[in-house]
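Thought: the user wants the 3D structure for the chain below. I'll pass the sequence to the structure tool as-is, report back what it returns, then summarize two notable features.
Action: structure_tool
Action Input:
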Amino acid sequence: MNRIKLLSEQVSNQIAAGEVIERPASVVKELVENSIDAGASRITVEVIDGGRTLIRVSDDGQGMSQDDALMCLERHATSKIEQAEDLSQIRSMGFRGEAIPSIASVSHMTLISRLRGLDSPEGTEINVSGGKIVNVKAAGAAVGTSIEVRNLFYNLPARRKFLRAQQTERSHIQHYITLVASAYPRLALTYIQEKKVVFQFPPVPPSVDEADIKLLRDRMRLLYGRGENLVEVDSSLQYDSTPEEDVALGAPSKLVDLKLWGIIGAPGVSRSARDRQHFFVNRRPVDNIGLNYALTNAYQSALMKGRHPVCCLFLELHPSEVDVNIHPAKREVKFHKEQAVRRIVGDILRSSLERYHRSQELAVAESQLLDEPQKVLAPKAPPSTNEVSHEEPPPVETPPLPLAKEKAPIVPAPKKTAGMPHYLETGSTHAERTTTTTDALGKTVPALTPDLEAPLENAPLLEVPLYLIGVLSRLYLLFESDRGLVIVDQHAAHERILFERLMEQAQKGNAEQQKLLLSETIETGMKDAALLKERLLIFQKLGIGLHEFGARTFLIDALPPFVKAVSAKEFVLNLLDSLRTAGREISQADLAMETIATHACRLAVKANDVMANEEIEHLMDQLRQCKMPYTCPHGRPTIIEISTRELEKKFRRIV
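Observation:
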């Protein structure tokens, strides 16, 4: 008697359902994807009892004839692909033809559909129970398809028992609905839970010519509310997708278009979990380790440890460059040039963050051209000398700083002329450029320029004049601006300056070396030894004297001067761990980033370090030149602002 038997179709469908249908949210996902592929502009999802009792998905898509409706209940019946070559050109959300029969095999399912273009209002209704067709009949129906799933897993008690609580299952469904709403901002989407409308997103007609990124912002505002500072990402380029083995044979380059667009959180906008990180590849929500790594690496010096950035990013590239057929539920994808895509995405995100930090969103951007003189707000008049101060003098060891109103403000440096070093710029000096007038006390002060009389409400903090008014707790530098109070953490600011200076040296590969009094050796495994041998040049450019000393042994005879490691061996092994985690595509700057951030913190000005006014002015000038001046390398803010309006609210001057 044969021990190996062919399984029945019903058992096969239930096994397939175990792979495709994990929980009620999986049913919603498969049905909504079918609606999207059918060209629907409106989709309604209704759920009762967390999806156990009822899931109904209705759309106004293409619809199906009776023959197609019956055929879709067969395994591997699909309109998306026809031959094996189509698997490398997948543009639809679904393509396997497994979802409908799998769902029908573990539930009581009713399918109602009417094909678009027919004059008759008659559609088709099919009732299926446990994978068996109960009846097929004509029924009145709107154009499109409605699929109703009742009593999910009724015939698989073990699977039904392992479903989570209603609230948990609802949260999974809601999460998927938010992904669809984000991926298709023009789609009208309604989500009804326990007969109550939870989400109702309005449609955007095709005639409305608005950029997808603006529609995405509106959709994100509906989902998560207002208040978060978000940065737009929009970049298109080409990359070489030629396989490495073909490159070795001299094959010509094959350039492929890649576009990355969407929204990311500004530095400081973060979460303790990754639930607000949404990645889409050709509009498909995906999980991909490489994309997660690229995002985290881009924020490496902009967020504190344990915090995660928020994003809603769309990666668009040719379908042949991404494999979506590697996961039963199509949640994971694999890129043919994984490392190249990861590097490109990381570079685009890093550039977007740097542009955000250096953005010139000034209200005077139209009038302040490169060849115009720098305009400065006038300092306010100092307090009258006839007034008697009853405040106690500050301690002797911390002499008070002069009032900023008695001296010129610390202002941003003039814009540099393109292609010309700052010290070669032509034109008058700041003193020559400023128009003067006489204030109420008879002192000569710079005159207000007419178009600058209103506060620069949209200007970045470092782009407005700041008046030094004091130091708090020997750590926080206090400035007055035309918008309110500005506070700078002197340690975090200096840390950012040192970090970018050392990173620039690391990127150029001209880091200094300091010889060790006693050289040390490290012995590694074969795999790590091969990795180190490939990256010896990177270590040497970073100022680390690392040399081969045997098959698996390396000699360390020098370290960068800023490294104060107790053990050179431990220091190199930590870098090796970073190299192993990041992979072979890591750059020398990325490898050095964490180490430089740590040692920049140790070298920076500390709390209780007294700074002279000239040193403070120099610190602010250097901070303005940084690429990302608003956070320290560990993600803490360097500068914050308390607006005059906030102060007036605190003192109940306004309500």
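Final Answer: Structure generated. Residues 9-82+91-201 form a domain with the Heat Shock Protein 90 fold (CATH 3.30.565.10). The CA atoms of residues 579 and 591 lie 7 Å apart.
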